[in-house]
Automatic annotation (TrEMBL):
Domain of life: Eukaryota
Full protein name: Uncharacterized protein
Gene3D superfamilies, per database record: 1.20.1530.20
Source organism per UniProt: Niveomyces insectorum RCEF 264
Record field: transmembrane: 28-51, 63-83, 104-122, 134-152, 164-187, 211-232, 274-300, 320-340, 360-378
Keywords: Membrane, Transmembrane, Transmembrane helix
GO terms for cellular component: plasma membrane
Signal peptide: none
Length: 398
């Protein structure tokens, strides 16, 4: 009997080790699955570095069409399928929401950036920070909020996707009219920016045509089609959303936008024209700037309890607050890059424009990276609020 039971005992002793290995493998798979967007950003950046000609503008896949139209179109088509029409109409009438998001984008963001630019101009006498990069930050500050990542991240954090959608459409309709003049007004009147001030954009007509064409084809048309399908075939639409995981596919489209942006950067050798100190400044300042604007948006949306009790300035609901916090700090490349070249196309500013594009390209990429982690923070905040409300309601019932 001892000879028979010995293998059984040995197998039993091996079982915990096998169980532990399977558990670790399962945890690793779960970690990779939960962070797939961050891993994907790393992958597309590597692809952009080694094969920049594939996804650059006018590259092999013609990313200005295949990505800027198709990928963005998929994002807004999915949004149209999943958002009730009545929610869009409600948020169209929400003036406080409009003022808060557009005010952050066009006032608070530029005010802080302009203060930092003047601080650098006063202290960086050796010009370690390229003046074209500083001009690029002022240009970035004058842009409207982005089109796609706001909607995707708001949805991921269980915020009000309809609120985000309404605001990005408003911002990108107004942006082409507001941004050019606002950017020129923000540029410091110093010798470092004299060439930019002297060539203040005589090619805006082509830019308007390009931007509104893209807005119509990649945003408004897919959104309208999605809304019509959800109205007339609601059950079938819901089945498609759940069966084919369309919301996940629309999130993956963000990776294509990042791939295209970095491919253009590497193809034009933009990183090689500035110092390592300048690159470090851009990368770190972008993260700080995005987080600071997020905190400001949260504070304005949900002020302290004392301010929140004032009738004319109530605290916003948590889901709308999340939409504000993703829309307020974000900036767009979809309008940014066409506008940059439209405003100074006639001038001989090729290398300068390449360096100016770095802040907007890197900021819009880093905002997706940082927002991915902000999503987790907002999910935890919502869970905490729900738990607190459940406890309070149970106490009231007692």
């Amino acid at each position: 009997m001892a000879a028979v039971t010995a293998p059984d005992n040995e197998a039993a002793s091996d079982h915990p080790a096998k169980f532990k290995a399977r558990t670790r493998l399962s945890q690793a798979i779960h970690l990779v699955a939960s962070q797939w967007l961050i891993i994907g950003i790393g992958v597309v950046c590597v692809l952009a570095y080694f094969f920049p000609n594939v996804a650059k503008e006018d590259g092999i896949i013609r990313s200005q069409y295949s990505i800027l139209y198709a990928a963005v179109g998929i994002i807004f088509f999915v949004s149209g399928l999943s958002i009730p029409s009545d929610k869009l109409l409600i948020h169209l009438r929400n003036w406080r929401l409009h003022l808060l998001i557009q005010g952050t984008s066009y006032l608070f963001f530029p005010a802080f950036v302009l203060a930092v630019v003047h601080l650098v101009l006063a202290t960086d006498t050796s010009k370690n920070i390229d003046r074209s990069v500083l001009a690029g930050y002022i240009f970035t500050a004058g842009l409207p909020t982005t089109i796609s990542s706001n909607v995707v991240m708001t949805r991921a954090a269980h915020g009000d996707e309809a609120a985000a959608l309404v605001e990005v459409v408003i911002a990108n309709v107004l942006g082409p009219f507001i941004s050019p003049g606002w950017i020129m007004a923000l540029l410091p009147r110093t010798a470092d920016f004299a060439l930019l001030l002297a060539n203040n954009g005589s090619n805006l007509g082509d830019m308007y045509k390009s931007v509104f064409k893209q807005l119509g084809i990649s945003v408004l048309a897919p959104l309208a089609v999605g809304q019509l399908l959800s109205i007339f075939w609601s059950k079938q639409t819901l089945w498609c959303l759940e069966t084919f995981r369309l919301k996940l596919i629309s999130t993956a489209c963000l990776l294509l936008l990042i791939w295209s942006a970095f491919s253009t950067c590497f193809a034009t050798n933009a990183f090689e024209t500035i110092t390592p100190q300048c690159i470090a400044f851009i990368v770190l300042f972008n993260v700080f700037l995005y987080l600071l604007m997020t905190v400001i948006c949260f504070g304005l949306s949900r002020p302290s309890e004392k301010i929140g009790k004032i009738p004319f300035y109530p605290r916003m609901p948590p889901d709308i607050t999340i939409a504000v916090c993703f829309c307020g700090p974000a900036k767009t490349t979809a309008l940014g890059i066409p506008l940059l070249h439209a405003m100074w196309k006639s001038a001989d500013l090729g290398p300068t424009l390449g360096r100016m594009s770095l802040p907007v390209l890197l900021y819009t990429t880093e905002q997706v990276f940082v927002a991915h982690f902000v999503v987790y923070a907002f999910k935890a905040w919502l869970r905490k609020k729900e738990k607190t409300e459940t406890i309070e309601s149970s106490q009231d019932s007692v």
